Amino acid sequence: MSQFFEIHPENPQPRLIRQAAQIIESGGIVAVPTDSAYALVCRLDDKSAVEKLRRIRGVDEKHHLTLLVRDLSEISTYARVDNRQYRLLKASTPGPYTVILDATHEVPRRLSHPSRKTIGIRVPENAILLALLGELGQPLIGTTLQLPGDDHMLSDPDEVRERLGKQIDLIIDGGAGTLEPTTIVDLTGLEPVLLRAGRGDPAAFGL
Q1: How many Å apart are CA 33 and CA 56, to the nearest integer?
Q2: Which one of 54, 102, 111, 123 is most buried, by most CB atoms within 10 A?
Q3: Taking the alpha carbons of 56, 141, 120, 144 in that order, is the dihedral positive or negative?
Q4: What is the pLDDT of residue 139?
Q5: Residue 60: is it exposed, middle or buried by C-beta count within 10 angstroms (0-12/13-18/19+)?
Q6: Could you tell me whether strands 39-43 and 140-144 are parallel, antiparallel, or unpaired per DSSP bridges?
Q7: Using alpha carbons only, what angle is made at residue 205 by residues 99 and 86, rounded to the nearest 5 degrees?
Q8: Of 24, 59, 64, 17, which is closest to residue 44 (Cα–Cα)?
Q9: Which pLDDT does position 106 carry in this prediction?
């Protein structure tokens, strides 16, 4: 059975954040609140955890997983960013956006899109998730928590517990999320391209 932590959404308890980080470091999969819907996350470099995350989510290797980072300073390790892209990212982060960028060699091949070598990157605006990223000292890999066959994302931690209590290692209750996904913008071309409208205003990218 999953563990279940109630963590304050604005002032996360350091003890619980440390325990959550230890679960992730030991290969666990965790349901976390974000600034949109809940997400499933695991360690970036844990192949078996990433594969299990994909199975739970019901997606194959062609589906972009998202790299969750604390701030823009971490992005350049995992994605190639020019001045134009950086200005757009600075104007839109942190926030409910996922941006598609060209991946660097630091990104394991199993995490980048197999044909395009791109990666989705996100700087969330959620105190719990940012505290967890800070405790870990490295990015997380994640995906919106929407189960196979569902037409909606999971944003109620009690429903997450009911549906996934036997499949994942920890559920963090940080209050109800939204039913809106992130806005996805592809920045790999000459102009930004809106791939999915969501909670973030596309105007931040001039769209």
Answers
A1: 17
A2: 123
A3: positive
A4: 93
A5: exposed
A6: antiparallel
A7: 65
A8: 24
A9: 77
Q: What are the b/e assignments for 8-47, b being 16+ CB within 10 Å?
A: eeeebeeebbeebbebbeeebbbbbbbbbbbbbbbbbebe
HEC readout, the chain: CCEEEECCCCCCCHHHHHHHHHHHHCCCCEEECCCCCCEEEEECCCHHHHHHHHHHHCCCCCCCCEEECCCHHHHHHHEECCHHHHHHHHHHCCCCEEEEEEECCCCCCCCCCCCCCEEEEECCCCHHHHHHHHHHCCCEEEEECCCCCCCCCCCCHHHHHHHHCCCCCEEEECCCCCCCCCEEEECCCCCCEEEECCCCCHHHHCC
Q: Considering only CA atoms, which of 55, 56, 116, 123 is closest in space to residue 89?
A: 123
Q: What is the mean pLDDT of each run of 10 residues along the chain (207 residues)?
A: 93 97 96 93 91 91 86 89 94 94 79 72 95 95 91 90 94 89 93 94 92
Kindly report the pTM of this predicted structure: 0.91
Structure token pair of residue 189:
């071309």
CB 101 within 8 A of CB 187: yes
Q: How many angstroms separate the CA atoms of 33 and 16, rounded? A: 14
